[in-house]
Amino acid sequence: MRSYSLDLRRRVIDRIAGGQSRRGAAEHLSVSASFAVKLVARRERTGSMEPAPQAPAGHDFLIGRVKEKPDITMPELAAEFETLHGKASGFPVRFRSATGKVRPSSWPCARAG
User: Fold this and answer.
1) Average pLDDT, whole number, for the chain?
2) Cα–Cα distances in Å, from 6 out to 31, 37, 50, 95?
3) Which of 2, 23, 60, 69 has a 20 to 30 A CA-CA distance from 35?
4) Interior angle at CA 105, CA 103 and CA 88, nearest 5
5) What is the structure's pLDDT at 108?
6) Residue ranges of domains in the chain
7) Cα(26)–Cα(28) distance, rounded to whole angstroms?
8) Which residues of 8-19 are buried (b: 16+ CB within 10 A; e: fewer)?
């Protein structure tokens, strides 16, 4: 999921600074109340409205492991990920078809073999 734009973040903060409640500002700008509450808390804590850097769960592990062993297979990588993190359900296993297009692992042809 992508982060909200800095412009939208500013509009939320401006409405709240102008006296509107967090929930009211959120409703008016079509964002969740949770986002508005967390945004204000982040701004008070860090002084910034910028979104925090985001990386998928296990990103550093996956990149590091592939650099250590470039010929590792996806099933091996998934097994190691599951051993470390207790699950591999969020592991983005993707395959390339003969045409070079990415096939999600949920496709039946990707699960064969």
Assistant:
1) 79
2) 13, 16, 7, 35
3) 60
4) 140
5) 47
6) 6-46, 59-111
7) 5
8) bbebbbebbeee
Cβ atoms 65, 77 nearer than 8 A: yes
| Helix/strand/coil for 4 | coil
As a whole number of angstroms, the distance between CA 83 and CA 25 comes to 44
**Any idea which residue has 């079509």 for tokens?**
30
In whole angstroms, what is the distance from residue 108 CA to residue 40 CA? 45
- Percent of the chain at pLDDT > 90 equals 44
What pTM, to 2 d.p., does this model score?
0.51
For position 81, what pLDDT does the model report? 81
pLDDT in tens, 86-95: 665 554 545 4
DSSP 77-107: HHHHHHHHHS--TT---EEE-TTS-EEETTS
Could you tell me if 28 and 55 are in contact, meaning their C-beta atoms sit under 8 angstroms apart? no
